[in-house]
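pls design
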């Protein structure tokens, strides 16, 4: 009887190896051969799961984004307004080993969106999801009386996204990265400014 293969589990295993390898070596340096070897597969075996390296890079970004969203959901659960907003953004900021590795995946993905319309749409959908979530949490903050500035919520959400995305770049600077404690102080300063003086 042929051995049953859990295709989804195999894809997840390959993606876990891929994103970590890409994060430490770079998307261009991590070859299909190297990814296959690190995942414990024969050269060429990845073709059964991913058509080519571009498909694997796309899947790796989606995998990282989905994992980040799972952490965000867990961190936000039971919270609302500013407390939930802070918990959300802490999971995005590159302040831990894991989130720094994730930033190393996100940055090369962004550069590919300039010339790849499909990747650009995936990136845009991801940011639209986060915009909606941030606006929902800001609206809760207004209901609770914690957000009182006159600036519209969609503009505030853009400020917060710009800070988080910018810190993903600054935290990866080779000689003077923005430290985790500085990032968290910046986040808290941003959140404090949501209450009118």
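designed seq:
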């Amino acid at each position: 009887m042929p051995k049953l293969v859990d295709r989804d589990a195999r894809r997840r295993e390959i993606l876990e190896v891929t994103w970590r390898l890409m994060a430490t070596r770079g998307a261009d340096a991590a070859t299909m051969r190297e990814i296959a070897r690190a995942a414990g597969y024969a050269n060429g075996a990845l073709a059964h799961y991913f058509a080519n390296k571009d498909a694997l890079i796309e899947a790796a970004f989606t995998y990282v984004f989905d994992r980040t969203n799972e952490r965000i959901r867990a961190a936000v659960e039971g919270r609302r307004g500013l407390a939930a907003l802070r918990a959300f953004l802490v999971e995005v900021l590159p302040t831990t080993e894991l989130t720094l590795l994730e930033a190393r995946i996100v940055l090369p993905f962004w550069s590919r969106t300039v010339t790849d319309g499909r990747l650009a749409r995936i990136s845009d959908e991801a940011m639209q999801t986060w915009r909606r979530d941030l606006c929902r949490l800001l609206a809760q903050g207004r209901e609770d009386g914690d957000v009182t500035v006159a600036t519209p919520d969609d503009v505030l959400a853009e400020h917060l996204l710009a800070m988080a995305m910018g810190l993903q770049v600054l935290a990866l600077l080779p000689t003077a990265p923005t430290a985790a404690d500085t990032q968290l102080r910046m986040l808290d300063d941003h959140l404090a400014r949501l209450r009118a003086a």
